């Protein structure tokens, strides 16, 4: 560790990469460059000692929203790799038609906390962990929060404005989109932070310590160009407009906002604290509005787009699976209410031959199979269908009915989330045993 600025020194290094001071202790050793001046040391120490608590808070917030989305999607492994459109819609992903026709303005704000799958979350959160502390240490927590929210919203606005089917041809596909689809992610805000560091490094290149000059400003050009190239290769499913919107807005903020050097006092401190509160309040109101509309049905156009992505073999698999599940439920109710077990064996066989869709679907199929076998073994007596409950029925029969009700809750939740992604077939929800 450097004795001057406290930064970590790599093995074999003779000089601190941040402040430039020599770390060689032997008497005969000569420094490869002059020792760091007091201004450089003061700058490095002040920046490195600043906290970055809001970087951690944003990390936790993004992960928390992701876990809520996973829970609402049935916590299946399939959902981890691709959330269903219903989950993205419910948690506030951007959709132009919802903003234009239903005036859901909060979809300009909430998408920066929503991710489409686990790799998307991990890549963005790693990037936040790398870039966020630099911006927060340099500018302070208040400005950092404002930068994050403003550039994140700017990225969503850029994505919103570039839905131009007539321009989404040839090279225009890099920036413009030809269809209104759900989009989300923190990439716009992350590119905004990169834009801040890029301009910061250029503005103060003559007074920054060497390590900071290499990390910021033109030192960021390779990373920016690499990401733009990745966006070009992935045009069509990567929202390059959001990335560029965040990058440009971050650069503009860095040009416009005064930088308070370590040790300097600023008369604008209270203003930035107020702006931070306003930014946090905007996000909070956005998610409050999202919660109010959480149960809104998925727009028909998006539902049709989701169904169109599934090829015919997958539709056929789902149809076979759904028929087996429906037949098994009918056989179960026949055994439970009328003591009729004639269809139980064939229903069990159909369940065993039904195709596998995903781990949760397999678990539900096996659960229904176990209930069906148990109902057959009990050879349930006739229960008056006019009765609102099974009160007075044998204890085993009531226990079986309770088990089915628990199973049906899980099944209905799967149908409303992951089940919607398997095709055009509408499957009736399982009802309680009455």
List its traits:
434 residues; mainly alpha; Rhomboid-like fold; 59% helix
Provide a compact summary of the structure.
The protein has 434 residues and is mainly α. The protein has 17 helices and no strands.
**Rg of Cα set:** 29 Å
Range of strand content = under 5%
The CATH superfamily of the largest domain is identified as: Rhomboid-like
Average pLDDT rating? 80
Number of domains: 3
Counted by DSSP, the helix tally is 17
Kindly state the percentage of residues in helix: 55-70%
Q: Largest beta sheet, briefly?
A: none
Distance between the termini: 72 Å
Low-pLDDT residue spans:
26-36, 380-392, 424-429
Number-wise, the strands total: 0
Secondary-structure element pattern, one letter each: HHHHHHHHHHHHHHHHH
The level-1 CATH class of the largest domain? Mainly Alpha
Description:
The protein is mainly α and 434 residues long. It folds into 3 domains: 1-39, no CATH class; 50-299, Rhomboid-like fold (Up-down Bundle); 310-422. It has helices at 38-49, 53-72, 77-81, 85-90, 96-101, 118-139, 141-161, 187-203, 210-215, 221-233, 240-256, 269-292, 300-308, 312-338, 344-353, 359-378, 395-416. The longest helix has 27 residues, at 312-338. The protein starts with 37 loop residues before the first helix and ends in an 18-residue tail after the last helix. Mean pLDDT is 80; it is low at 26-36, 380-392 and 424-429.
